[in-house]
Amino acid sequence: MTALQELNNLITKEYTIEVNLLKTSILDSYIEGELDKSYDYRPYKTIKRSSPKSIKQDLRSTLNFLMKDIVEYGSLEKYYKESFEDTDDSIVILMQQNGDREKPTDEEIKLWKSGEYDLYNSYYRFDVIINGARVGLKLLNKLIGACNLD
Fold it and tell me: How is the chain split among helix, strand and coil, in percent rounded to 5?
């Protein structure tokens, strides 16, 4: 056995899963579209240990926690049902928010459409890193069994 084979055997016995959540908010005009980026920040980062037997469930539970409890979007299943096209190599969720970073009310949306109120498009990007390597969306979909979520 070569040194690289020995190393590969060692590092595939346990996985370190890291999920970084990045939020970018952009001022959105009903008439002009997206205008100025207002801020970027990393609201959450999580690190979890996993094994080959539990990696699928550990990835799903971590992403569900972030989507439901941190972003307040909903479940991983909801994301896959509503996702039209994956143009990025990460899970990206778009949510419209008011200046208080909350879901706008019907009245705020009405005022925004008339140009009297500011709303923001907030993009949440989930970057998944396993054992130090960034995992693209296609591989992530295979690991979590995305086709079996509904």
Answer: 35, 35, 30
Coil vs helix vs strand at 149: coil
Residue with tokens 């100025």: 36
Q: Distance between CA atoms of 48 and 121, rounded to whole angstroms?
A: 30
Beta-bridge partner residues of 33: 29
What mean pLDDT do residues 29-56 have?
Answer: 84
Listed in sequence order, the DSSP H helices in 1-150 are: 3-11, 55-65, 76-82, 106-113, 137-144
**Cα separation of the two ends of the chain:** 43
Q: What is the pLDDT of residues 56-85, one digit of tens each?
A: 999 999 999 999 998 888 888 888 888 755
DSSP states along 44-83: EEEEEEE-TTTHHHHHHHHHHHIIIIIS----HHHHHHH-
Q: Which amino acid is at 75?
A: S
Q: Structure tokens of 81?
A: 């049902």
